[in-house]
UniProtKB/TrEMBL annotation, chains A, B:
Mutarotase converts alpha-aldose to the beta-anomer. It is active on D-glucose, L-arabinose, D-xylose, D-galactose, maltose and lactose. This is UDP-glucose 4-epimerase. Keywords: Carbohydrate metabolism, Galactose metabolism, Isomerase, NAD. Homodimer. It comes from Penicillium antarcticum. Its cofactor is NAD(+).
Amino acid sequence: MPAGSVLVAGGTGYIGSFTTLALLEAGYKVVVADNLYNSSPEALKRVELICGKKAEFVQLDVTEENGFDKVFEAHPDIDSVIHFAALKAVGESGEKPLDYYLVNVYGTINLLRSMVKHNVTNIVFSSSATVYGDATRFPNMIPIPEDCPLGPTNPYGNTKFAVETAITDVINAQRNNATKAGNEAEAKKWNGALLRYFNPAGAHPSGIMGEDPQGVPYNLLPLLAQVATGKREKLMVFGDDYASHDGTAIRDYIHILDLADGHLKALNYLRANNPGVRAWNLGTGKGSTVYEMIRAFSAAVGKDQPYEVAPRRAGDVLNLTANPTRANTELGWKAERTLEQACEDLWLWTKNNPQGYRQQPPAELLAALKK
Amino acid sequence: MPAGSVLVAGGTGYIGSFTTLALLEAGYKVVVADNLYNSSPEALKRVELICGKKAEFVQLDVTEENGFDKVFEAHPDIDSVIHFAALKAVGESGEKPLDYYLVNVYGTINLLRSMVKHNVTNIVFSSSATVYGDATRFPNMIPIPEDCPLGPTNPYGNTKFAVETAITDVINAQRNNATKAGNEAEAKKWNGALLRYFNPAGAHPSGIMGEDPQGVPYNLLPLLAQVATGKREKLMVFGDDYASHDGTAIRDYIHILDLADGHLKALNYLRANNPGVRAWNLGTGKGSTVYEMIRAFSAAVGKDQPYEVAPRRAGDVLNLTANPTRANTELGWKAERTLEQACEDLWLWTKNNPQGYRQQPPAELLAALKK
């Protein structure tokens, strides 16, 4: 078993729960903290069904003063945090930016304060490709490398950017202060991974674990899934006048299992190599248009999914496709799964769990799991 | 008297107290909130001695939850905030970045939350030229215009940048939400000024009001003042190998009375023109090197001030000189006072108040004031 336990903040959410699964499968001891605002503790039961191991759960809001102190006091073996706890809807961030600054930015300041106080020295942060903004404003920056100048175009992206600088400044200060005090061993312990990911997609191939957004989903594939099950009449395509081959916006869709594996590899890299703060793109390197995604998901379902074109949304950009070379070479990580597999896994999850985590999965899927 | 009272957060500090004076002189009713961390309530007594009007004082920390709510409840006539409450030492921000994120960023989130709750709709924010970072990386960007790409180079600057985006996002959301609800009158009420200022300098020409930093001062002129009074053996010049004509770094020093007047003009502009969020540089447009400043201050004192060259400081840049054209034309504001006057006023204040606000000013200065 790896030394040191891991706190997964926001660990019952979509990416958080799959990362918890990856950590447990790799032998880590995991404590999950989540306020359950947009997620269900049932996700952790599915994790346990799949891997036979259990994460401890603490209900906690990131903005609760001293909340993380209590967790670190109760679990002195935690030396690393993977931090997903945030609001994540670009559109909503334009209407309620204060909530985003409070939860995403202050929440992280609050977490960092507790980490420094309790000597929890590694953080893997759930950043976003949104920090790049419209990379098409630079020549040769598509697919986007990590050294592309940052320039978010919406409040959600602004909060992710602010958190990146906060983590960078705090980790650098911890290292510099320790170095000045002549303690190089202490300096090396402080590390941060800024994982800028592109569009997470898909579900667990068992069909018992997937994305379960409360209320209206924010992203293309969950919306398409609702169309396929009849919950939603049609998909709204925001903009068909972008400068892509079919006019719709280009994104880099990455299978959730690959994304979770990227978090595990980043954490292992921090522990093994002590790089300080470093950003890595987690993407496939291959962009797909909205129309291509509709076709791919329709193929998985076996039925064409209806859509309607609407105007572009404020803050959306033409193309967010990763150059994942740095993660490929440094982390030894690569997106292995195809878009088709993501669509198939999503459809298996969706058709078998129309109420998401609010109902038990079909007995035949559970039986198949035990084999 | 102008309609609406003004809350000056951080109003006992250097720029805050001079802005309070300018507001009172212009007929505004002013409430000052300050935690007195690096300032003295005596500053407000000097304001009263100078202008014969009094600001109300509330001791309050920006990070206190619901603290601003209480102020706005007690003063329902407040419709505008001028926000200075922040930590401001670049060097310290590299060692204690968490304090800077907490006070500067979270403090402002906390303030904005109360403003939205209590319908306080105008904010003038004490930003900094530091948000530009090293503008010499762009051609034709010295002197720096407001549309120069931002890129702070130290944690202090990162917090100012994050606050600029928070204010922009919140004001824009208030306007957009009101517009969507069909309430254009409400939308127009929400306005923000991002005042990026360069290097404040000088004191009140009466000699009874000036900068009174607790502990070690951060900036060139207060340090020079300590050398002149013998509190400090010599000035440390950080870097003489910059690409300037004498090798020392170039800054744009602006007289504190001009700077305070800029805040007043920005507030009036927000109220009269409802521009939404807008950034203005407050500077003279003329850069001076460290060596030029030492000569100017030595001339005011009538004695050469000793100095020693030390290595550059991390995060410092070659040249921060404002292009103040936008403020000149839009706000009808211009820096009127000379560098020589700033040095003379600073020396008058320094030699007459060796203990700053911890002692009463000489009787002859008070007598001169009454004439």
